Fold:
Amino acid sequence: MDVEQRAGLRYMVEMAGALLLMVGAAYLRHFHLGPITDLAPIVPIWMLLWASVRYYFRLDEYQRLKYVQSAALSAGILFCLDWSYRFAQPVFGLPHQSEIVSVVSTIRGKRARPA
Structure:
């Protein structure tokens, strides 16, 4: 197994671990055990970013370039979706929600809980 494959495998393991922790933390939120369980998904979210940064530093120069280009394109698409949603809200009568709550509630197929 070469260096790039090992870096990819480590990345996938770290991301899968963070996602499993996020699923577990989100599951605990349904029991309303207190503010700690409501904040628990924050740690795995930052672990996802940390895994991405670690993966970036494990890559060679060409792979880093490709990685940064795809990350920049993804960020640009997300920004455009966010800004478009803000202008489409009054036109289509869409609910006013924060960016994160909007995305999560859309994925879950439910309306967000009021804060």
